[in-house]
Amino acid sequence: MSDLSNTPTAITCLTQGEVILYPTEAVYGLGCDPDNQQAVEALLAIKQRPVEKGLILIADNYGQLLKYVDDAKIPMDKRADIFSSWPAAITWVMPASKNTPKWLTGQFDTIAVRVTNHPTVKRLCQEFGKPLVSTSANLTGQETVISIDQAKAQFTEQVGFYVDEALGGNTQPSTIKDAMTGKIFRG
């Protein structure tokens, strides 16, 4: 029997402030602990993405997102649209909690959040006990990587762990909608 105690896992890497690569509904994503500023800054550096743009959080359930969302500001008449759309590849831009760090919201007073139905991401969020930062695995403005081999060639040692599991089968990244107005930012 081999000793796997020193074998890194995605959860170990997340806990240690590293960036991981994992499958989402349509594309591979780069993710990290949303509460670890150094991890988020490392992810932004890998992606060459300015902090001002803000980031998406992906979760197993809405309860994992409550720390980051100002739930009281979401009108009752909007809740049915939001909660009936999940779990799915629909990201909602919601009012951010006053305690949500600017390294997540960027220049905005909102936070983009998604409750996923992808089994791998659900498992990662359950095991980690909170949401992950989720952004497409590419350099800003370039095509998203389409395989683990391509990801390893592009990101090499910058990524602490590569979760080599299947994509969710969607052909487009998640739809992004404004929770307050219903406006579609990405369809």
UniProtKB/TrEMBL annotation:
GO terms assigned for molecular function: ATP binding; double-stranded RNA binding; L-threonylcarbamoyladenylate synthase; tRNA binding
Keywords: ATP-binding, Cytoplasm, Nucleotide-binding, Nucleotidyltransferase, Transferase, tRNA processing
Catalyzed chemical reaction(s): L-threonine + hydrogencarbonate + ATP = L-threonylcarbamoyladenylate + diphosphate + H2O
GO BP: regulation of translational fidelity; tRNA threonylcarbamoyladenosine modification
Enzyme nomenclature, EC number: 2.7.7.87
Enzyme class: transferase
Signal peptide: none
InterPro entries: DHBP_synth_RibB-like_a/b_dom, Sua5-like_dom, TC-AMP_synthase, TC-AMP_synthase_SUA5
YrdC-like domain mapped to chain residues: 4-187
Keyword Kinase tagged: no
Superkingdom of source: Bacteria
Record's keyword annotation contains Transferase: yes
Assigned GO CC terms: cytoplasm
Listed PANTHER family: SUA5, THREONYLCARBAMOYL-AMP SYNTHASE
Family recorded in the similarity comment: Belongs to the SUA5 family. TsaC subfamily.
Name this protein carries in UniProt: Threonylcarbamoyl-AMP synthase
